[in-house]
Write a structure and sequence with these properties.
Mean pLDDT of chain A: 92
Distance between the termini of chain A: 43 Å
Strand order of the largest sheet of chain A: 15-25-24-17-18-19-20-16
Structural class of chain A: alpha/beta
Oligomer: homodimer
Strand content of chain A: 15-25%
Chain lengths: 890, 890
């Protein structure tokens, strides 16, 4: 036997054994009921069986603690005393609701049984007390139906069929037409059906009913849906659920009764106005079920909506005044917008629930800023109140909610925002039309690095293949272009110049709208809502910037992206991928010439052609970024990415550029790799062909001198060597970069401060960070590649099974979205520690996709990085996430 | 100024400042000369400039320590006192040799200058003293030639031309015909030529000559050849070289003088007999140069070789007796076979050098075993005396050294051993011919997993493409088949049914010999020498087994490989790759059916067809391995490896098997991966299709029960789950394996002990080893894949640049050959530590290619693994390496 322990906590009647701080023990609902009762609000009294009962229940092979039964009896007695009613008493029966209530809200578990305590005898008592026999039997049949469903696990449709056939027989169309006698018959039929199904009668003993409901709640903690939900929301099984038993109050006891839900502020806009709905003569479930249309709470709302009837304010002014006082008290007490449930039983108001209300991103922002201005919360708290991920909705144009959508097809919401344009299938055509000022949408089977210029030119991208981490998705997110990927039903028919979805044909040039936030492709030009980056948004960002420690940079290579980054508050460029600059039509020929050259001299000649372009690239970036640091990553991808791959493509390129098709194909085959991710790429290229990085280094330093001369202020270049696995690689390449810097500075008579650092994107580099930091002046974690190598997961290929992995709980999340803190994270931590031990003040940053993911940003704050870098459109998200992470660290 | 330090160490005349233990300071040669002098052997006196002089020289921008000059003068004075001669003295000139001498023997550095101290005056003194003017001038011209070459860096051919034209003019055919006058003329001509070339005369001051030679030795430490050699042999630059200055003795002072080299035992067979050669009236270089043919030292040798003339034993019996006493003393002193140099000057014996003699693998083995039996060394020392890598030569058939090789072409020595067979180009044909009892050699452009059956059937494999780690090379080594890979000149002409090398054509069916140890492909059937695995070999292995701690297992899947493994002393199977069993013609159809099936039911039906084969596989293995553990790795490679890839192949397979070609191609495309190494493979397959491993588990347990029933003794299966990255993968799969085991055991009424473990081949698995070990009952390190992921190096692709990387010193060695102890090794260490902390006594092994590499085996011993597993033919190597590693650890 365990020692004596409190398993049951009572509440109501102005007192409570628990309070809001005891969520772990009492569950969210139980703790808030206790808190409300303690605040003196009119809460129907009741008691809570703690989550520890649940834990104990499962620990002991589904047996309750020995003391529980006695404590429940005592709580029941107290409840009877508070209400003046008696459980199972025919004259004055106590009826209760039984609800589950875990620490975190958990759909998938048993929800509610109402009117528990009714049987053939007590129902008569209820009829007498309420003076409404019809109400009493309606309540009874509702109870039988609910209890049978959630406790006895019988299906709803059995009861619906009985009710339906009863209505047919009597030629009723709605439930309201049924009389008390009708409900008595229905109840009898329900009970017969249950007995037939179960081979035993529906339980009539209220105590048996109560223990049945309690058992159902605890058992539902382990049903498949609950397990699935917990897995997906990282809720530990060990938390358990509580059970709340509460005296019933009735919103359906005639025209002086009502039930409703309310938000203390508008959950959609955040506006400071009382907002909600109610129904006269109804129980809570009726509001949700949508059979009757609820009315607004306030007169102002009702008038604004142009509705008839009466608002609660008009129908029950006294109750409304009382409710107003309660909601204000609750919001002030909880210091957040509350989501309330209430019931009016014969003009008497009861508060059934309060909790922090869910809200849109826009509302979250406004409520947080308003409350801080009102002095209800601090600026820091306001910063913590807004989910950074939700900001995404606010940073992109969206489709007007009023617009009628003509859906063509659906794919994955690969990159948020919406855009309108004419259908184009060819990237070159996209680029040409865009140059001519036309808005286009690029529709492709899938995209590759050769399509970058067309993706940039397009307003949005649609692909029929590929997942959330396909090339199209990743690049589109980086560019801030809306993208729908993997629209599987979409078939491109190049010959017909159209795409088809089922029987529907959309032709080249026709206008479509892409909603990258929902994954929808719509026909026609939708009405758009533009994002607002001023007002509350700007205020919250300002507060966030005050709170954060880490800097936020952007991944950008084009002037357009760099300008967007600055607009969104980027404090530098954390990753300029120079290879993206090589795909331009003017340059790719020289790049291919370089790759085909058989001698160093030949390569240098081709690189000389690239040099002026590359220098201009850096001049443009330096001019936009001014005194902010610009991290330039030297050529990274394997060379075959720049070559055509099929025989036909080789011939086409050969024809266009005058090179030999056979030589091109031969070189492409020679460079072909089984695992290009682990191949001849990154600094390995420059170990074998140092002249490539030499050209890039010269372009950086010449550009820096040009801009310094023109502007009088020097840019801040940080040269980043990718894919390093050994210090000696960096020694060799940094030596050459430094030599070229010295040469350029001597020639130009000017010295520019610069750093040479490395990406840490291989486990070996992380492990040998101490050695590498002797040469590297900064580290930037390439967490995409580090995730690929540490976990042995190819980003290009793992889409096929990662879903199954997350679903089956093998991995908690897609590690390309949120960093794998256990594995990849340990390497990041090790590298930080060893790097800083070797070089004091070593600058540490991250430039993988994770730089814009809030939970990853929180990890990087804990790891002590100096900055995160992400795509321009995620910069505000990263700023807010960094602030929250800093505040969480305290 | 540095404080006073001893830079110069004298030796000779029965005393020495140094000894054999001071190799770091005096170099190998200097230390051994000092030691011999100390032993009282007749060493010509001299002195050694230490390696610290060299280090100081380079530290101070090629300047000598200030004290050096004085110490050299003092050492010279002492040398003059010991010899009674004077440097530069016309009447009684001291002549010296100057030699380099690093800690490790280093070809590529300056070797020797003899007769230093001669000039136009001292040569006359030498003539007087020796009574032989011709000898004196011959010595002088040799000195000029050597000094000019190694110190003044003039080319040899200049002097050879002068000598040649002098001989022509006088119609001489050999050098011996030249008279004293001739040499005087030649000397004059030499000196003129030098002066013309350098613009200044040949140095005549002995002191100047001496410092010139010393400077040349120190400078040669940094010449390109020396740097290259050091890099390739992991010799640190910081070691530096010493310089040895030693009084000259002359083996060319007439018929009572001689010079020779000797080995205390036969360096080729290891036989215990004094072995060597000498020349009367010659200097050391003449023995090496091969102008005159040296004679054997002993009478027995001379008679055995059927030679005329006199052996040293016969010609100079007194000297021979003295030499015999010296060599016996030296071998006993050094406790190893010695390589000696000696000179006899006018009947007086001088010992010039002793060092541990180089020997063949066979000799190393015999000498080690013999010496241990003689009590000269311990058994443990014998074990440490044999290079494990060299054993490879002894384990495979080799081509008789007497066989005249008709070379067709050369490739890489990809897998050792030699074999004879008929040329075949098609793997199926190879299999058919082999079944018919014919010996065949498979000649292919490159091989793929589909060729396995043909490779197994062949006696050897030749490929025209691919490196040392290509598929052909890796598989051939695993199978113990000789293999020559990357024979670039070889062109296969399938139409003509032949291969061509240059103009030469070798037809299908013609007999060739493959020498996988040298990389040669020969025409015709060579005479073969079979390996001997008994006698000394068996003895040494027995001693090794006593000394080692780690167990040695083999990687094997076929009965043939398993039998070989047992023959070579494997103590279990460490890796049975079940996928290799799936390529068999009978089975591949069912495998493809499984891959094409769209439902679990369809997959199960196909797997049911595979089941009896798979069970038989395990029955065979268990029968051979008896009570030894058998580690069975469940299916690992991505499924597309089992499918044809091109349209044509799909059509061929479709035709042959009756499946739909389009469906086949579509599935192949669907399964195609950008980075298959990081793709849908290993246990990921079974997370999505658990029925695959279910079938394999059932086959293992049914087979185990079958064998246990038949033999009365249970096999020891260890089931290994590959490519694990998270504990939950293993939880899921181990759960299913255990359930199937329970089911089979219940059905069969028998329980077999088994383990379920995991491969650690991903950095994440290594980092999370603590968690994983809660479920895994053993770890086996898959260091191939762990190297690929940790270093970001694809084994299939990195051949193209790894050579450059090692050459440029970026990596010390190919990390697929010897484990990267710093990076990959740290992860192995971490995983061992964390795994054992979580599960006491967790069994740890390695089954990558590194398991058969001696330096990696040493690492694994330090890491505390329980066993290594390698290909059957490397088992003896691993046994010896493991013994040495255990002994080194002490």
């Amino acid at each position: 036997m365990s020692t004596s322990k409190q398993w049951v906590y009572g509440f109501g009647g102005g007192e409570s054994a628990g309070d809001a701080s005891m969520k772990a023990l009492l569950g969210g609902k139980g703790a808030n009921l206790a808190e409300m009762a303690k605040l003196g609000l009119p809460v129907p009294p009741g008691f809570t069986l703690t989550t520890e009962v649940c834990t104990e229940f499962y620990k002991n092979n589904r047996a309750y603690p020995g003391e529980l039964s006695g404590q429940v009896d005592a709580a029941l007695a107290a409840l009877e005393a508070k209400t003046g009613k008696k459980f199972g008493d025919v004259a004055n029966p106590l009826l209760v609701s039984v609800r589950s209530g875990a620490r975190a809200s958990m759909p998938g578990m048993m929800d509610t049984v109402l009117n528990l305590g009714l049987n053939d005898q007590t129902v008569e008592g209820l009829a007498q007390l309420s003076g409404d026999k019809r109400f009493a039997y309606d309540s009874y049949r509702r109870f039988i139906q609910m209890y049978s469903n959630v406790v006895l696990e019988l299906e709803h449709h059995m009861f619906e069929e009985i009710l339906g056939s009863h209505k047919d027989t009597n030629d009723y169309r709605t439930d309201t037409e049924l009389t008390a006698e009708d409900w008595i018959q229905v109840v009898a039929e329900y009970k017969r059906a249950v007995e037939k199904k179960l081979g035993k009668p529906f339980p009539s003993d209220p105590k048996e009913q109560l223990w049945g409901a309690i058992g159902a709640v605890f058992s539902s903690w382990m049903n498949d849906r609950a397990i699935f939900y917990r897995k997906h929301n990282n809720i530990p099984e060990s938390w358990g659920t509580a059970v709340n038993v509460q005296a019933m109050v009735f919103g359906n006891m005639g025209e002086t009764s009502a039930t409703g839900v309310a938000f203390t502020r508008d959950p959609s806009t955040g506006e400071k106005r009382f907002y909600g709905e109610y129904l006269i003569n109804a129980q809570g479930e009726d509001v949700v079920a949508g059979i009757r249309t609820p009315k607004p709470l306030t007169k102002a709302s009702r008038e604004a909506m142009g509705e008839g009837g009466l608002s609660l304010e008009e129908a029950m002014p006294v109750v409304f005044a009382e409710l107003t006082a309660h909601y204000q008290k609750l919001e002030a007490h909880y210091r957040d917008m509350q989501d309330l449930e209430f019931t009016v039983e014969r003009d008497r108001l009861y508060m059934l629930q309060t909790r922090n209300g869910k809200r849109t991103a826009k509302a979250a922002l406004k409520i947080a800023v308003d409350m801080a201005r009102e002095g209800l919360i601090t600026e820091k708290e306001a910063v913590q109140r807004v989910d950074p991920s939700a900001l995404d909705q606010l940073l992109h144009p969206t489709i007007s909610p009023k617009y009628h959508r003509d859906l063509i097809c659906r794919g994955l919401p690969a990159s948020p925002g919406a855009a309108v344009g004419a259908v184009v299938f060819d990237p070159d055509e996209a680029a040409n039309l865009a140059t001519a000022g036309k808005a286009v949408i690029l529709v492709r089977e899938e995209t590759s690095p050769e399509d970058i210029h067309g993706m940039h030119a397009a307003k949005a991208i649609v692909t029929s293949r590929g997942g959330m981490t396909s090339h199209a998705a990743v690049v589109a997110r980086g560019m801030g272009r809306p993208c729908v990927s993997g629209a599987g039903e979409l078939r491109i028919d190049m010959k017909a110049g159209a795409f088809k979805v089922g029987g529907r044909v959309v032709k080249l040039g026709e206008t479509i709208t892409v909603d990258g936030s929902s994954g929808e492709v719509l026909f026609g030009a939708a009405d758009m809502v533009q994002p607002e980056l001023t007002g509350d948004f700007a205020t919250l960002m300002e507060w966030a910037d005050k709170a954060r420690r880490m800097k936020v940079r952007a991944n950008a290579e084009t002037p357009e992206d760099a300008a967007t980054a600055v607009k969104f508050g980027a404090e530098g460029i954390g990753l300029c991928r120079t290879e993206h600059m090589f795909f331009d039509a003017e340059r790719i020929a020289a790049v291919r010439e370089m790759i085909l050259a058989e001698t160093e001299k030949g390569r240098v000649a081709a690189l000389d052609k690239l040099f002026p372009h590359q220098r201009q690239d850096f001049v443009d970036l330096f001019e936009i970024m001014g005194p902010r640091p610009v991290t330039i990553r030297f050529l990274d991808p394997p060379l075959h990415e720049f070559l055509p791959h099929t025989e036909e493509d080789c011939e086409a390129v050969a024809k266009a550029t005058g090179v030999d098709a056979k030589a091109l194909l031969a070189r492409a085959r020679e460079l072909h790799e089984v695992n290009p991710m682990l191949g001849f790429r990154g600094c390995r290229l420059a170990i074998v062909y140092p002249e490539i990085y030499d050209m890039q280094a010269r372009a950086v330093f010449e550009a820096a001198c040009d801009v310094a001369e023109a502007k009088g202020a020097a840019p801040v270049p940080e040269i980043m060597i990718p894919f390093v696995l050994a210090k000696r690689e960096l020694d060799f390449l940094k030596g050459r970069v430094d030599a070229i810097a010295a040469e350029v500075f001597a020639k130009r008579g000017r010295k520019i401060e610069y750093l040479v650092g490395t990406m840490i994107e291989l486990p070996r580099a992380a492990l040998l960070a101490g050695e590498i930091a002797q040469t590297a002046e900064f580290f930037s974690f390439g967490t995409n590649d580090l995730t690929q190598t540490t976990m042995g997961l190819s980003r290009d290929d793992s889409g096929k099974f990662l879903g199954t992995f997350v679903e089956r709980g093998v991995l908690p999340q897609d590690p390309f979205v949120s960093i794998d803190a256990q594995g990849v994270g340990e390497l990041v931590g090790l590298a930080c520690e060893r790097g800083r031990a070797a070089r004091q003040g070593l600058k540490l940053g991250v430039c993988g996709e994770h730089g814009g993911d809030p939970s990853s940003v929180a990890f990087f704050e804990r790891a002590g990085l100096d900055y995160v870098s992400c795509s321009p459109y995620r910069v505000p998200i990263a700023r807010l996430a960094a602030a929250q992470a800093a505040l969480a660290k305290g």
